[in-house]
Amino acid sequence: MAEANEVPDGAVRERAIGYIQKHWGRLGDLPKPLVPVIWVTVYQSLKIAMKAEAEGGPKGLLKNTLLGDRRLMPSLRKQRSGLNSCKK
Questions:
Q1: Is the pTM higher than 0.85?
Q2: What's the half-sphere exposure (Cβ side, CA atoms, 13 Å) at 33?
Q3: How many CA atoms lie within 13 A of 84 on its CB side?
Q4: Per-residue pLDDT tens for 26-78?
Q5: What's the rounded Cα separation, in Å, for the pair 48 and 80?
Q6: Which of 32, 44, 62, 63 has the least C-beta neighbours within 10 A?
Q7: Residues whose CB falls within 8 Å of the CB of residue 51, separated by 6 or more in sequence, listed in order
């Protein structure tokens, strides 16, 4: 069963497509080996960011750090660094 604050897959997909098109253009125009790397990195980054947003943004991140499983902030940092690497 899905968690109460689980982010819908379709919403993440839509945001990922918009983000990719804004920063890199169409996926079909990119070199084939880069497409899965960019897609997975952007998708995972947005999924974690949207989960943090659903939990209350900065307050939700703090609550997760202090009282939760403490995985949200490190996951967000890891995905952000991966996203920055893709942009370069």
A1: no
A2: 0
A3: 6
A4: 888 888 888 898 898 889 888 888 887 777 777 776 666 666 666 677 776 77
A5: 10
A6: 32
A7: 5, 6, 7, 72
> 46-69: string of b/e by CB count within 10 Å (b at 16+)?
bbbbbbbebbeeeebbeebeeeee
Cα 43 to the center of its chain, rounded Å: 5
Cα separation, 39 vs 16, in Å, equals: 8
Residue bearing tokens 């080996």:
33
Q: CB-side exposure of 48: number of CA atoms within 13 Å?
A: 19
